[in-house]
Amino acid sequence: MTNALTVAGKPQAGADLLRIVRINEEIKAVVGVAFKINIMALNAIFLAKRAGTTALGFGVLSNELRVFSQDLRTCMGSLTDLIHRCVNEVSLVLQDIRHTKLLRDAVDLSANPAGQAILQRREAGNAEHRSRLGALRRQLQRSLEDAFRLVELGGVLAKSAKIEAAYGQAFAGPLAQVSGEFDGIVEEIRNSLQALRRSAFFSDQ
Amino acid sequence: MKKTNVIYQDGDHKWVAIVRDPERPGHLVDTNEYLVTHGGAGILLDPGGAEVFPAVFSALSSEFDPTALSAVFASHQDPDICSSLALWLEFNPGMRCYVSWLWSSFVPHFGGTAETFACIPDEGMEISLNGLQLQAVPAHYLHSSGNFHLYDRQAKILFSGDVGAALLPADQDGLFVENFDAHIKHAEGFHRRWMGSNEAKRRWCERVAQMDIDMLCPQHGAIYRGADVHRFISWFDDLQVGIVGS
Q1: Does the beta-carbon distance from A99 to B86 stay under 8 Å?
Q2: Which residues on chain B are in Cβ contact (under 8 Å) with A112?
Q3: How many C-beta neighbours within 10 Å does residue B201 have?
Q4: pLDDT over 70 (residue B203)
């Protein structure tokens, strides 16, 4: 049977739950990396101070990268919150599927006159849960886009730090190494978020 | 579909046994549900698991308006006893669920709100069904640590939950025990393994031996009636329980 709760006969909610779990795992990985950027940025600030006036620009950028890592963690925190709400709604939808099937079987077997009204009430409840899940899905997608834009900014900061590192004179080598690591990590986060944007959780609705 | 059998009737006071589902998947234990009606109100005893809800609901509907169920009685907390609770509540959100206080925060995982549950204290209580007094009789540790049976002194029927249960072969689907000696072989292993306390068993036997019982209705297997009721109580009294293996 195929209806609004199923896709090609398979419960979509079950597939959604797996997709949410994967998204959550990816977000946890990004949070871990964002924390790493924070530590790296602190080290970079100290390095820039030691380098003195030749690394003033690098120091400013390192500070901005530190702010970026904090913003990213806040952003990921709100994504995690949305994920938890999605899990809650998907669980309700899964429960709806089982209950509705059992209720429908009961009503079909008994031909109880009250049954159709109960089923309709249950379907209305199901529709409400699906609608709430749909709204959360869109909200999560928008938040991911926000996170992606933030990471694009982080990428610009990392690339600017690479340029600034070239003016570091005696410290140019260590500064280039740190800014290269920044760039690599931000790129890693960017790839993770891009994969999340392509999740079937957003396309297979 | 399950069969309904009226096992007692006096005017509008009825006991209906809902038993044996030939279409039940083999991996689910067979269960008996009992409907007690009085004055247009009904209480369903051990309403069953969610998976058997369609069969129980349709059988019950053939005898009684399910929206007129005022309560369910859950002898204990197991899923085959009351995991269908949320589905029954769809038909009557105001329905109460009588259950041991011990499980009053566990059974809500099957459904219901804070208002759904009526907690039975350890010593038992009287439950009124539109003027008919039913007695929740303590049967703790047989097998659940918070366990009750339900006695209808007017009908002289004791609903005994898992006590008296038998896991019968598919070809033995009679409603009543016809040959006690042959039947009890299917009950022995169950009672030895599922019942955990000889002391609790002794107290229960002493308590129910003093009751006037025409029928003892377990949640699994056939119903004991007449002399077989006391035959069962004596047999159970002599049985050593809480034993794994032979």
Answers
A1: yes
A2: 57-58, 61, 66
A3: 23
A4: yes
Q: Is the pLDDT of residue A205 over 70?
A: no
Task: Assess contact for B59 and B29: CB atoms under 8 A.
Answer: no
Q: Which amino acid is at A13?
A: A
pLDDT at residue number A5: 47
Q: Which site among A96, A101, A118 would you substitute to test the B interface, given the most B Cβ atoms closer than 10 Å to its Cβ?
A: A118
ipTM field: 0.82
Domains of chain B and CATH, by start: 3-238 (3.60.15.10)
Report whether pLDDT(A25) > 50.
Answer: yes
Report the chain A residue with the minimal C-alpha distance to residue B1.
Answer: A109
> Measured between alpha carbons, how far apart are the two ends of chain A, in Å?
17
Cβ atoms of B59 and B1 within 8 Å: the answer is yes
pLDDT digits (tens, 9 = 90+) for A69-91: 999 999 999 999 999 899 889 99
B65/A102 Cβ within 8 A: no
Domain count, chain A: 1
E-state strands within chain A:
6-7, 10-11
Residue type, A189: I
Report yes or no on A113 lying in a domain. yes
Give residue A100's domain range. 6-203
- State whether residue A110 sits within 8 Å of chain B by CB: yes
**So what's the pLDDT on residue B246?**
58
**Contact status of B180 with chain A (Cβ, < 8 Å):** no
Q: Does A114 touch chain B (CB under 8 A)?
A: yes
- The answer to whether residue B149 scores a pLDDT higher than 50 is yes
Residue A1 located in a structural domain: no
pLDDT band, residue A147 (cuts 50/70/90): very high
Contacts of B159 (CB under 8 A, 6+ apart): B34, B45, B46, B73, B75, B149, B150, B151, B217
Task: Number of A to B CB contacts under 8 A, please give it.
Answer: 40
CATH number at residue A109: 1.20.1270
With respect to residue A186, please indicate whether it lies within any of the assigned structural domains.
yes
Tens of pLDDT along A95-130? 999 999 999 999 999 877 888 999 999 999 999 999
